[in-house]
Amino acid sequence: GAVVSQHPSRVICKSGTSVKIECRSLDFQATTMFWYRQFPKQSLMLMATSNEGSKATYEQGVEKDKFLINHASLTLSTLTVTSAHPEDSSFYICSASLGTSGGLGGGTQYFGPGTRLTVL
Amino acid sequence: GQNIDQPTEMTATEGAIVQINCTYQTSGFNGLFWYQQHAGEAPTFLSYNVLDGLEEKGRFSSFLSRSKGYSYLLLKELQMKDSASYLCAPLDSNYQLIWGAGTKLIIKP
Predict the structure, then answer these.
(1) Which residues of chain B lie closer than 8 angstroms to A44, CB-CB?
(2) In this predicted model, what pLDDT tens digit does every residue of A18-67 receive, in sequence order?
């Protein structure tokens, strides 16, 4: 159980184009989805938290107009990197959570396999 | 502030036991997670502790002391596939995971 998929796994694009990454919880309904970015040999950096049907909450320093997040359903969230530049090249990882209500393990995040973005 | 402290790197021998320590300071506390992350891959969930004590799950065990802000992950009967980074991540009062840089574990034959 608790499988999260992410698509595409790898994308190479030209500078100035937009890239959409999908994150799906396959066997559970995710109350909350998270988007992370990780540069080589660095820790995970939370970009934003999104709840189904509401606007995402962005972390300080993350441009909401550049990284558009849509959480249309309890099983799907998308991250669109608009007008991508080479410095946006990174490993983008989503995670999904059942939420924090009740029981041990509330808040457990299950991660997708990640998307490696290379902007030329 | 919020802070996670883990060794940057550890080396152990195949078949041996290794303990990865983690100390943390967070705004509030709602449990602590351990994740495993192989190079180039996303993290995978290993364990969750919210009460003091030891949680055993196969070859992996995790310990928590809330009063000391301390946890460890114990890996027994090490296998080459255990070579990975191990991330200690406490959950703060907002139920947000606080991530450190993790401990890179190198297993040698």
Answers:
(1) 43, 87, 99
(2) 999 999 999 888 888 999 999 988 888 999 998 887 889 999 999 999 99
Of A91, A104, A116, the CB nearest to B48: A104
Q: 3-state DSSP call for residue A56?
A: coil
* pLDDT of B62 higher than 70: yes
Question: For the segment A85-96, what is each residue's pLDDT rounded down to a tens digit?
Answer: 999 999 999 999
Report the gap between the CA of B80 and the closest CA in chain A (Å): 20
| Rg of chain B, C-alpha, whole Å | 13
Place of tokens 């078949």: B15
**Closest residue of chain A to B100, computed from CA coordinates:** A43
Which stretches of A14-114 are assigned E, i.e. beta strand? 19-25, 32-38, 45-51, 57-58, 67-73, 76-81, 90-97, 109-111
Indicate the residue of B40, B42, B50 with minimum beta-carbon distance to A112. B42
